[in-house]
Structures
1.
Amino acid sequence: MTISRRSFVQAMGVALLTPFTIRSLAETDSEAYARFVLGGSTSSDEIDNDGLVFDLSVASGDPSQAGVVLWTHVNPEAYISGQSLYVDVALDEGFTQPILSAEVNASDITAERDYTVNIDLEGYLLPDQRYFYRFKYGNLSSRTGRCHTLPSGSLENIKMAVVTCQDYTTGYFNAYSHIADEDVHCVLHLGDFIYEYAEYEGFEDSIVHSLALPSGGSVAMDLEDYRHIYKEYRKDKNLQRAMEMHSFIITWDDHETADNAYWDYERDTLGVPSHPYQTGDNNPDQLRQLRRDAQQAWIEYVPARVKVNESASHAFDYLQIYRSFQFGDLVDLYMTDSRTYRTKEPCKDGTDWENYWCTDYEENTQTMLGETQRDWLIDGVANSTARWKVWGNQTLLAQLAGTVLGRPLVYANYDAWDGYQWEREQILSSVKDSGTNNFVVLTGDLHSSIASYLKVDFKKVSNWNYDNLVGVELMTPSISSPNLNDTVEKGIDVGSIFTSLLNGGVQVNNPHIKDFVSNIYGYAVIEFNVDELNWTVYSIDKKADNPSTAKNVYKKFNYEPVGMWLTEK
């Protein structure tokens, strides 16, 4: 009989000493994943509760059926040249049932990676198993983290928390205190894990955490600025506890780089319309470097299994973060990247009159995902045999417009999918044509709670036209980022269309939207069952520093794909 390497490691615990280099599932030669040898540990029993060494605690991400990415950061003030880092994994919190121990080579704890360590345990764990892990450095042990590998085979139920948009400067992360206590398999983060701002623009009189960036800028200008922001966010105890207790699956939106980021294909460089590098010199090389800096900081501070090519000079080749996850036969999840490859937001460069009559949003040259990623998403959903096909998406997919008899007169937000309508129709029509009736899109970005039907043609107003219905879109409110109600109350211009829609016009003008609110903060929990899903939105105050603040149910929704019924419970 043949014994696999994984089975042998699990059987022998810490006995195996063979060295190997970690590689991601993408078979990249990335140095983002630390090398280690199995076996060896220290007797460090004192827990570093004060963060003397593990100042940002621990985290895990991108669980698979055979592994997970573990993450930590060594405080530079505690760093000792040549000293190894150790990691223990066990079945129990007391580590009396060890699975493996390993030594991370000291040469992989460097200033070049800002003393962050990502370890990919792919191939060394079993499906649907909860594990506990800890790092050790010198005479101190990190706080214990908990992770959960993905299930395989037949599955009746899976539950996930869904989060987005966590500006640290204008609010407290109280929601994460509650997420830490949720009985969920993992946490999906749909983007804006950080904001590039030293202070959230327009809310300077409401700042609770002001960030003094190393560059002295008002927004991130380079790698050190991005790193500083990640470190400040990751110091938050509520976020730390949530990331200790659950594995996160994270994608990004615009603010991990800069507001309304896109790719300027004509100049082959980053586009960031309100960033000083574009409003100032507009130097393409400087903008390319800003994108590279944002990418590097992301892979340093986010535990994720992604494709990285350290030798690549172009942003497209350096990092690919769109990827999929399989939860047994119940859920296939596709996490996309709608910022790296997207074209410029349409209808912004003319006068108000010209922009009103602009129809560039209909052009097939407008892309959010790029052709390769779009085909990957369509093929994945169409060929999936899982009960539920789920898309982790960043900006609102459903139409949001001022209309007359169903015909849109003007759209509220061209930065969302209304600015990329040809591609939206390509995706939704392909999903419909594939016969997929259990298609769910999870969305962030708008700092609102939305439940909506998805249609091939949004001009057809009936929600009972099954030939036109594709699935549902569910948007989670922001953790802390200012919502539309806050923005309007501050007197900040959100556009005449948004303003009119907020005054009770969203559902009247967009009958596919079943529910819309933009005056709460919090998160959502989604529960997938074989025949239905349940979506619960929680409202949690972010304005006072109070981790035990009340968790209130805003609304609960049920969706049955057979009849395509989205109902409030």
Note: The chain has two domains: 5-148, 157-568.
2.
Amino acid sequence: MTGVEDLPAEPVGAALGPPASAAGIGRLAATVERLRTQLDDAESTAEFRTLIALARGVLMERLRISPATATRQLEELAARSGMPVVELAADIVAEITGESPGRVPDGADPAPGAGALSLNVRLRAAEAGVLSASDVHAAAGSLHRHALAPLGAVAVAVWALAADGSLLLAGHAGFPAAEARRWHHTPPGVETVAQLAVRTRAAYWSTGADRRHSSSIGERTLGADAARVAIPAQLGGRLLGVLEICWPGPVGEFPQPVHRQLQSLAELCAHTLDSDSGGGPDGVGGSFGVSGGVGAFGGVGAYGAYGAYGVGGFSGSAGSAVAPELADLLDSLLEPALILQPLHDTAGRLSDFRIAHVNERFVDPVGRPAAAILGLPFLQAYPLAAEDGGLSERIERVHATGEPFRHDRIVLRALIDGIQVTTTLAVGITRQGGVLVLTWHPEDEEARLARLLQHAQRLGRMGGFEENLLTGEVTWSAELLELFALPAGAPPVPIREFAAHAHADDATAISRFVRTVLHHRMPASAAFRLLRSDGVQRYIRVVAEPVLEDGTMIAVRGACQDVSAQHWTEIALAATRDRLEHTEREVEEGNRLTLRLQRAIMPVAPSPIDAWGLQIATRYRPAEKGHLVGGDWYDAVVLPNERILLVVGDVAGHGIDAATEMVALRNALRGLAATGATPSQMLNWLGTVAHHMSGSTVTATVVCGVYDPRDRTLRWSRAGHPPPLLVRDGTTTVPPMPEGMLLGAVGNARYGEHILQLQPGDTLLMYTDGLIERRDRDIEESLRDLLTLVRPAAATLDEHLEHLLLHSNADTDDDTCLIGVTVR
């Protein structure tokens, strides 16, 4: 498989270009992550593409046709049979080998993401994946993913046989990275399952209940009940290694085709190991390639076509293998360590470094497992390390010069799921032969805590001190020296001499503080005004506690904090609280006076009026909150000319001003009514009064009516007020309304007038908007709701008014005035 490291690349310095900003590095890291995801997706489908190419090669050889014709032929055959192309390709390859795919044993789970693909497809795809793998490790992953996981296997190891009879772990899948590091080299005298297969040159099956070996790879993680088989990887009579497969528990007897397929997979591993013969020590770890020949497919045609038409032949770039001695040395270190192998492009220029080995103590600074980064290029695992002056530049310099590098504080940034994670590391880099050894560990905990404490003292404007009472030595932090405005070399001040640096008025408080700590041996605190050497006065709070050892006080520890800002804030808050309390008392007194004035003018439940054939009842409901006392009023007066004045009104606003303006308008309207004027004329005059009252404009709404008992007529006029309601014969209606704008809006407003003919039994209701007003609807909609609420079913007029007040759905907490008039 082709990895990122196989692509042509510029040298590290050239690839980076000029110094990149943090945002640019972040975008670069995001791009690397996206390309890595795309690469993983491409690798997951590479085996199926290779399988299709193999089938196409078979058709080309058997039918003697061109590549394009073979492609069309394969697609036509798939369409006729109704099978996916990949399944048809698997069947064609299986026909060449003469093998059936076998079956999945009971209890075995299919491979993740298997979907509906058959085991035949997965087996052939695994073989194709091994052929196209860039190294043995990738080949082992393809075998496990496609061929062995469907058989229930959880892990696979490919061992390479060295000249001295030892086994080297050339590739693996399913084992933890730490376990693979432990078993990277098995001496010839260790009786493992793989060594037994080498000795007998036959497949060796082992279960937890019956085994002859001492130990094997994966027993720590799989447990003693794990079942495994070791199959010799032979090619042309030569034993090149062992294919070892592990199951989590006992397995039943596999059918014979499955055994043949396992033998074929072992032979395919032998072919991969043989292709690596020109590699590193003992023939392990070099370049891997597929050049064609007889292999697991059992026929020359498949391999021949595969290689002839450009599908085979991958030149890997795994680089040199890590020397076992160096890996053992790193595993013995007490700090996390990595081995980095240089990677070069096709022109031989340095492009990156591969993470070739990590020791058991390695901890990824951003929390990933070691297996997640092992084998990756360093800049792919940590792309933000490429920023100017970052860790990647240090690694490249050590590789170029051979000069070791060490630093106690290197910032390493990594991008995990789009989130930038920052870690501070102590780093060491050395060159060992052709590889680099990188050691790192997170910043020392004590140093980090000391720096955090220093920052906390600086931000809190405080400093600590300790005074040894046995030796007289006094130790101050740098922050405390700065707080007292003392130079860096100045001697610290003992606790007994604090009074010499304080205001004279605070000497008593400091003396009490010192006596409590030194003589009573108790923790204490005090506040004083510090007179600094630069002439600035600051408010300081000091706290201290004795240090006792076997009943003897040996030292005093404490801290001083600059609380000047807090002191002045407390003074300002105290003054503000005093002003607020005074204002609250004034407002409360004003509301109380306003409420008393309003209650004196309009009692909540006045006595009913019965005169000249009219029964009149009134109600006043004050606001629920005292500060909302408003200017609503009503009036029902028998005039000297034997007529009756009926008025409801509402002055805009709340509080004492609204109440006094209401009283003025109410009394003015009474006086105007005594002249015998009509309601419209009275409102004309009252509007002039409101417009020029006390040099300021007063706005109000009013409904004013004069009832004549001789002909039962009501002459009425309105100034922007909701209309009265007429209840007649069980029906509630709104009488035609005269024109009239808000009272006091202009000085010369004119108001219209209507005459309403009343009949015995009629009920007239006059009200202020506190009865109907709601925040969530307009006044017209609220008026329609009131029409449905008015039900003349009550026995008396008073009960009728109480019913309206009780069931009103108003929600503005405003005053409400209500007049009910019944004609007898």
Note: Residues 1-20, 99-117, 278-320 have pLDDT under 50 and may be disordered.
3.
Amino acid sequence: MKNSVKDFFSDAEHQDSPLREITDFLEEEYCNEQAGKYSDMRFVGYVLDLGFDNATIITSDPFKKAVGGVPRGSFLIMAPDSLEGMPPHFSLLRVNAAAPTPLSRDVQQTYFELHKKSMPDLDIWTKGELQWGALSADVLGMFFPDPSDAGNIMFSGDVNNIVSAHRYKVYAPTEALLRIIVNGTVRQENQFPIGKLRLTECSLPFANSHPVDTNVCVSTNDFRGFRTAMFGKTRLGKSNVVKIIAQSILETNEDDNSVGQLIFDINGEYANDNPQDGNKSLRSAYPNRCEVYALTPRPNTPSKPLKLNFYEQPDSCISILKTLLEQANQTAQYVRSFSSVQLPSIGDVIALPPGSQRIRAVRRIQMYWAILKKAGFNADEKRLRQLGLTGGGRTSPSHFDPHFNQGVIKAVYGQQGHQPPKTLDELKTHLEQVEQFRQQNKNDPAIQGLFEADDEALLEFFAPTIGGGPRILRPYMMYHDPQAGHFVQQILGYLDGGKTVILDLGNASDEIRQYFSDLLSRAIFSHQEQKFTDNKLAGHFVQLYFEEAHNLFPKEEKDFTGVYARFAKEGAKFHIGMVYSTQSPSTINKELLAQTENFFVAHMSSQGEAEALARLQVQFDGLQRDILKTRTPGYMRMLTFSHRFIIPVQIKKFEATAAGPASGVGQ
């Protein structure tokens, strides 16, 4: 095969190329054929018909047995009889179905006659005729050396030329060639083994054949700043893939801490070990690189409180109360009025100059504080005083004084006067007196124009004429901690330092989960956007992990105002990547899906969902039946930014031990 001067110089040029493997392979096949060692060959068959997109392969039972079978979805390589001095290259095929041969009708007639006559013994000639068949395969593209650097492998999704079908032969790839097929296009930087190549769900081996043992690698650079989707029915390994991806980023960025990760753990499985299943958590594997925030602390998991200080965060916490009250179906008019109130943040109030506007803002927050106090929410009054929330320009230094004018004080208390409240209890009593007077003397000149609509809504909720008022807020005290700090800034600091932060939301309602997701997502987007504006992004990324993504992402196709839509559209620019999982592609906004680069797809039971996936990402077209029929946990169809075609892979089970990065192609 290699006897020309032209071949010699071609070999010299590409002797360091990984694709030299195909040259050596074809030479070995040629030698085995000449020596009659057919059982050692990887030959599958001849090309019966060839186009740019499809090929029909004629094969026989002995060929298929010798290579351990040729199942649907398996990879085959197609190469010409001789490279004829061309650089080493081969076309990649994927088997999709059995195909008829020109003699199919005659073969069927022979089968019919044999069975009709009950003749189990076949003569040699008939046996030879009946064992031939044909396979239909997709032409996925071509592997060839990089013209500018022969040491690199390139892949094209098309072929530059086809010649007569009889000039090609088709082979089952060796382990070395499979490593090129599966990993040859994966970026060399930060490679990590994610599982094993698995061509079929059926694991029954052929006699005298060895099962495929090829590592499938990913580059974590394909996740940083990219979108990754996971689809499939529950309990089929989506969460395990999330752990493996998070682990791969931890392993490959250990030296520079260039990626911070935030995992919204809705079931508590990333933060906490599960002794029943023998599952270790991500936190257990990397205790020094993970920080856990939990709504409800768990005995064996060190964590920081994921709680809110309802007193110190009035602007965001009143929005949470609104959501919780709506969920509890609290529809009384005074409750709806309270839920519609918008409060400023403490910082915004302090920034106001002394005067009536600041006094009104302080008073409104103090009304809200009185509601919390009456509901039973504990407070650290020393911390509240340190906030510096005073009316400004007044003689009273109290942080709990609403600063009503003397006309109101005289009207409510008469001539005996009133001492400004110095505690929350005194503030509560003071506002009860004022509200009682207001309800009984609505036309008194002293209170005319004193309260705006939001003030009245707060006071009517504080002391309702009918209804529970603040008492209905007591179920939500579980989310409050008077010592809770500003955990958002803490988490942003951890992410900037390359830490993996896990939010244990296992005991939270859907509304609370969504609140924390929205709150932190907006904070991270704003943080990264500011770093981009200040030219401080450098090589640092933030990776976010969302489960049950259909509850978060917008349903309307034209809704791009939310933070998740901005992640999809602008996340790469701001070095924000996200991994999201859900059971069904159709529940996610199509425009957001169109921005997704990486896919991990497990079993789906709906033909409509499989078809929706194929319409979204053309590489899945033709694999719908396999996705519907296979349901082994961890068995995925994978497509990453580096991969140009779908790789069937059995994802390895997450273990709480450092796996280490891969090195070299296909390691």
Note: The first strand starts at residue 43 and ends at 50.
4.
Amino acid sequence: MDRFRARPLQTLSLTSRPPSPHALAWSCDAELAVATQECIYIFLPDYLAGHDADADERDASQYQFALSLQPSAVINPSTRINGQLCAQVGVKLPAPRTGEEGSFRGVGNGTVTGSGAALGQVIRVEWSPNGLGCNSRPVLMALTTTGNLITFGEQADSQSSATSSMRTRTFKNWRVLWGLGAKLPIPDSKSKDGFRTMNERIVSFSWSREIAPGRALLAYLNDMGQIVVMSVQYHRRRDSSKRGSEQEWIWTLTEHIRIDGRGPHKEATDPQDPDFSPQGSIFSLKWSPWLVDNGYRTATLAYLAKNHVGFRRIVLYGDWERGELPDVESERSDTTTMCLPLSSDALIEWEDAIWTEGDSHTARGIITTPFTVKSFQVMLNGVLSEPSPPHSIWECASAYADSDDMSTNPITGLIVHDPDPNNKPPIPYYSLVRLSATSTNLDWYQTNLPEGSLPQWVEDIGDQNARLVSRTAALYGVDSDFESDSEDEDKAMQDAPPAPAEPVLQVHPYRFRLWGLAKSPGDGCTAVLASKHDTQHPDRRGVSNVHFDWQVSADADDKANRVRPIFKPLTTEGRVWEWMYGLGGDVPGVTPGYKTSSGRQQSSPLKELFKRVATSLPCVFCDSQLSIKDDVAACENRHAFAICATSGIPILAPGISRVCGVCKMRCLKVSELEKLAEEHIGSVDAVGDSQGEVCGGCGGKFVV
């Protein structure tokens, strides 16, 4: 199979609309998540759609993202969510009292939310960095209106024979892993009960960039204006009686930092005040890229307050060993600050690059107010500024936006494109969409990229907005209670009664609302979440669609000369996605140019370690000598066995290996490698856990 036979990237139809903007999230492994009013749509990609001609023929009619999960988007903050999290450290939660099961009386300072009137609706989703969860896959975190953060992801039992035989990825092992926020219990060794019940309402959150497998930092903001930084780990429980993959995997959550994120401006909470304006954003936190220097790493956490933007530096000292608590601290004050007019749903986004000039390291980004775009630049290793004294929004002229920045069409989707490290643009390259796209407004899509072709979804939405039909045909052809595709609508309009000979009123039959914009791991594709509305009827159809844009090569024979450069490290899954849809380069061990046995059997420490072991193991059926050729080990009686892509050892029994979700090769489990090392080499120290976390053939993640 080549990239031109990949599954088609077709529009995804959803039966619900999002309750808030920026409702689209794309993970480092090209997994897609959409937050809507009724459910969270989670889509898993098929990276190669099969590896043989027969599979290609069977999957020719199957589109990309056909595998999906729709958990409910209304979540009650039940103590059961963290039952297993507490049980892992030996804490048993008390049973709820009679009449309290399923009830929620609210938390926080809000007049409504503090009384428990929040619905518990998911209003935002974000993927964690690479390598955090089970099988080194990212996990998905959702923010609810009750003030909870709920984490979804895989929780596979590697000892189960049912899961060990799986060759393709499914949602069978997906679970609600744990949660934070309002009324949820979390383990606390300082409490006499071994746990504490969180009594704060979370209003925003952000994952840090990738640190190391199984380790990440999470920042969240509560409704009291406090910013909290927690370490999140997924690691093996220390148990000397077990080894390798037989040890139990557990989650560890620890709070490290709590700082004031309210800013210097006085709160104006009286709605009768003529200068009152709504404030607050669920997108008010964002981590910069990590700056690694002199044995420690720093990142700047940007936060939005009332008409204020702050940049607080977070320092991670030393090596963070898996299973140990990290040494994390916050600087005493912000690196720099900005005062500017901000309204509801303001957003901040960093450029994924660090620019170095001499000893100075700077990072840049974009702020949406959300009606206009403001760029910023922060020195990651600069001198701290003095804390801003409390003042009113009139003193810093941030009460009202400039007349040039006035708009009534808010920005609901923003992506900052990956830059060429050798060509620094004056401001970060970005693309954005605004809420309303009609025939009369032309600013619903904006970008400062160098001139080029428009995304496919921009042309499609623009064509439908510009379409004109007679008002009679528009009234006849669109039924607000029936969702039909464009072909059905066109046919209905053609069947409308003929228009009179005299000139008739022509109208634009459709308009769009845009709810989010996301980019693929390597910035080769974009996706937009949009809902289509009728201009002539009251609209009651709660539907939306995900439209895609991808790179298209003009000539299949010219693909070698049309490779698009990618300027940042990606996971194997991300690189395969960009190879299929973003004109990215070939992926060793996966794509046709690197799929030979010589390309797969690369030298590695484990292959060198087990080189003699691999050629000395006998056949388990007839005890004759095995000979290894390409990816198969066979004896003289034609008993054949697959070869472990990590160690080169023949796999002689079922249930002791795992299959890669990308190249479909098998690798022995860590526990099996340790047994072989102890039996034939006399030491298990040479086999580290990291050797068994990804496929040795292509670096992809395992199915289970």
Note: The chain has four domains: 74-158+170-260, 279-409, 464-581, 602-692.
